[in-house]
Write a structure and sequence with these properties.
Elements (H helix, E strand, L loop, with lengths): L2 E5 L8 H13 L3 E5 L2 H5 L9 E3 L15 E5 L5 H10 L2 E4 L19 E6 L8 H4 L10 E3 L6 H10 L3 E2 L4 H7 E6 L2 H9 L3 E6 L8 H6 L4 E3 L3 H9 L15 H10 L2
Parallel strand pairs: 1-2, 1-4, 2-3, 4-5, 6-7, 6-9, 7-8, 9-10, 10-11
């Protein structure tokens, strides 16, 4: 009996579930194979500490890798109720993770010197090039740019010229650790930033779910919608008065939940 972790990824949905999966698998330190709905990120999963990662076209192809009676941790909302029923029959154990799960890697739980005042991380995906279309949203902030994984090469080159400084995709960890104010549409980046003592501002993209907003409100994270530059500048101007809620390693209750339910 083998255990698999499936994370929904791709050039239109980003890597938040992948980053969460990496945090979970590295914390579990068990013999678990990561599955992603994208071949490209699967090819570089070793750079994240994942020994075995397999890319799939769609969630329906999981049985091409897994066998009946195996165990599956499902981090995806792709499956409809009928498909979920079939999965419950096919796998001996099926855990369907909530999209609002809090999981952060150990390496972010430490105080870091915040040498970068503000960084803008639109997300790992920008298929429609919305960052460029709405560049006025961050123009004048003198922010660093965090490049995403699914950006077109020519698009990356153009964006680099628009920002004074930038972080490559591979420098994500360094960016999180060094950045004081992180403006991002990545829910996982918000949590990672909080763990380091950073002060994130969440930008709600129109094509992203709002599942995490209630959690962010409870953590006192500002939420900006509709590229509202006035709200963004207000959030930055008053950020010293904001009482962020600390994220601690004890917040990783999802790890304990998986261990208990899969008997790991």
């Amino acid at each position: 009996m083998k255990t698999y972790y499936y994370a929904h990824t791709g050039h239109r949905i980003g890597l938040d579930r992948f980053r969460r999966g990496v945090a979970i698998l590295n914390a579990l330190d068990e013999d678990i194979t990561l599955l992603t709905s994208d071949y490209r990120i699967a090819q570089v999963a070793r750079d994240f500490g994942i020994e075995r990662c397999v890319g799939l076209d769609v969630v329906r192809n999981i049985p091409q890798i897994a066998e009946g009676g195996d165990r599956l941790i499902l981090d995806s909302d792709e499956a409809n109720p009928i498909m979920l029923q079939d999965m419950e029959i096919y796998f001996s154990s099926l855990l369907h993770l909530s999209n609002s799960s809090i999981v952060v890697e150990k390496k972010f739980f430490a105080p870091f010197e915040k040498s970068v005042k503000i960084t803008y991380f639109f997300g790992d995906d920008d298929y429609e090039k919305d960052l460029e279309k709405n560049f006025n949203f961050v123009e004048g902030l003198e922010a660093h740019l965090q490049l995403g994984f699914y950006y077109f090469l020519d698009y990356e080159d153009m964006l680099k010229k628009k920002f004074l400084n930038y972080f490559e995709f591979e420098e994500y960890d360094e960016m999180i650790q060094k950045t004081d104010i992180l403006l991002t549409s990545s829910p996982q980046a918000v949590l990672d930033s909080l763990a380091t003592g950073g002060r994130p501002i969440y930008f709600q993209r129109e094509d992203y779910t709002e599942d995490m907003n209630k959690l962010f409100e409870s953590l006192s994270v500002p939420i900006i919608k509709n590229y509202d530059k006035t709200s963004l500048y207000t959030a930055i101007k008053t950020i010293n008065d904001r009482k962020y809620v600390n994220i601690t390693q004890e917040s990783n209750k999802t790890i304990d939940f998986i261990k208990e339910n899969l008997d790991l």
